[in-house]
Amino acid sequence: MRQWGMPDAFSVLLQRLQAGFDTIVPGADPVLRVSDRADFQANGALPLAKQVGRSPQQVAADVVAAASLDDICAVVEVSGPGFINLTLSDAFVADQTAAVSADERLGVAITATPQTMLIDYSSPNVAKEMHVGHLRSTVIGDALARVLGFLGHEVLRENHIGDWGTPFGMLIEHLIDVGGSADAESFSVRDLNEFYAQARLHFDRDPKFGERCRQRVVLLQGGDTETLRLWEIFVAESLRHINEVYRMLGVLLTDDDVAGESLYNPLLDVVVDELGAKGLLVEDHGALCVFPEGFTNRQGDPLPLIVRKSDGGYGYPATDLACIRDRTQRRGATTLLYVVGAEQALHLRLVFAVARLAGYLPETSDAVHVGFGLILGAAGKKLASRSGDSERLIDLLAEGVTRATASMAERPSDLSAEERATVARSLGIGAVKYADLSTERMRDYVFDWDRMLAFEGNTGPYLQYAHARIRSIFRKAEVPPPERGTRPVVDQPQERALALQLLGFSAAVEATAEALGPAKLCTYLFDLASSFTTFYEACRVLVDDEAVRTSRLALCDLTARVLAQGLSLLGMEAPEQM
């Protein structure tokens, strides 16, 4: 089981080792890592030996002799071809665990270099229901917003909804054709789904209708009063549904975070003018394009970013450039995170490259594509409903709650019916989110209800149950948790292993932020819960010896606090009992 070293312990070790390595070559990297053989292992002697022409074992021995490690390490040994294995002393582990317990932030430091980070995530289309394809962007983006905010970065959330363009021309014209413009307010999202399908069919089959739709878009972009009235009805109804899904998911997004395509419409002409003034635009078959260096198609021809189409209209690239311009210049973002499917990688690389050339993305700012894989059904294809359409997200979440309710009914519980319903909701929604977040984001994964709702294995219910089980220890014994900052005894190997896992919370949070991957935090929490299970089975908590009982209760309480905080950073609830 992997152990994560607490940054304080890690930084102390690194500082001491660095002093030893500096006696050989100043600035040499100790290459300090968590180890399965000891608590940590420093591997820097191997590359350094080649540099100085000495054996790795001798370099490692000289480093150990020069570093001051006796007060924090119980064992320091050179092994193999020059590895330095370091085992922390029990006293140091106990002291560090007490320090984490006393800290409201559980050892997680505020970053010394805060950034203004704008996260573009979720981004559903207006006038259509959210489907399962929106799940990954929504939950990954939300978890990153929580983690980065917890670390002290200023996080700006932006929900770039599709609320502009040809689809609205289709919807409005079809509404007028069927005579529904007078009572358009009565539409619901389910009506809109069917309504959109009808409008799309009409658009594909009737060229005259298609031309009317395009003219309606011109009216919309020009601010025609009646067109805007109908457009606003579609948008308002769609947002009502979107917010219903967000409430079920428990994500942070609100209407204040909505920044639809319509918001950037006034900037599109400005973008063209500015790109033209910089000499970046090239006319190609009537379209205005930018050809950034290094981008070619399969035939080796230069690949363009089409900023304005040959008919004078604008597509996604122009809006994306306007977004970057607004986000760095008006909102002051220094890092832009785009939580968007992996299939958009080339498009975003092109947009980022052109934004650099335009000066919208200065050297002091960065844009990162936080890509992710697909959610697959049992047959290994994109998850869809029985009809073959994309699964409605709200139906998927409701099914999760229903299944969790049935699962809880099979387990003994002292909860009231209302309390059981609340817990079932936490379990069902948490199971869906955790199955997604615990998967390395660039990987596809198979959606499997039985696996994700299991109370065993690396699942949301397992972690939520682990937290509830710990809290039940205090409730059943009718004792409060020990005072925070209580120094535990780590005489038993299971006590020490659990304490080391607890010291790793900060490292796990920082690793999650560095990789922009919630799966790292999920792995840590699962390892922590597993370590607690081993500890609980081997070390009786409610013993007669008061010192031992207090120590073990302190480890229990700290484990519950870390689990609850970790689940919160993933956007999940931690029930007190089940």
What does this protein look like?
With 578 residues, this protein is an alpha/beta fold. Among the domains are: 7-88, 2-Layer Sandwich (Gyrase A, domain 2), CATH 3.30.1360; 166-256, no CATH class. It is 52% helix and 9% strand. The chain contains 20 helices and 13 strands. It has helices at residues 7-22, 45-52, 56-66, 90-102, 135-150, 166-177, 189-205, 207-222, 225-249, 268-277, 316-329, 345-358, 393-409, 417-437, 449-452, 460-477, 493-503, 505-515, 519-538, 546-569, and strands spanning 32-34, 40-42, 73-79, 83-88, 116-120, 154-158, 282-284, 287-290, 305-308, 335-339, 366-370, 375-376, 445-446. It has a four-stranded antiparallel sheet with strand order 1-2-4-3. The protein has a four-stranded parallel sheet with strand order 6-5-10-11, with helices on both faces. A three-stranded antiparallel sheet has the order 7-8-9. Helix 4 crosses helix 17, helix 6 (166-177) crosses helix 8 (207-222) and helix 16 (460-477) packs parallel to helix 19 (519-538). The longest helix has 25 residues, at 225-249. The radius of gyration is 28 Å and the shape is globular. Mean pLDDT is 91; it is low at 1-7.
Q: Give the biggest beta sheet.
A: 4 strands, antiparallel
Q: In order across it, which strands form the biggest sheet?
A: 1-2-4-3
Report strand %.
5-15%
Helix content: 40-55%
> Which shape, going by the Cα principal axes?
globular
> How would you classify the helix and strand content by structural class?
alpha/beta
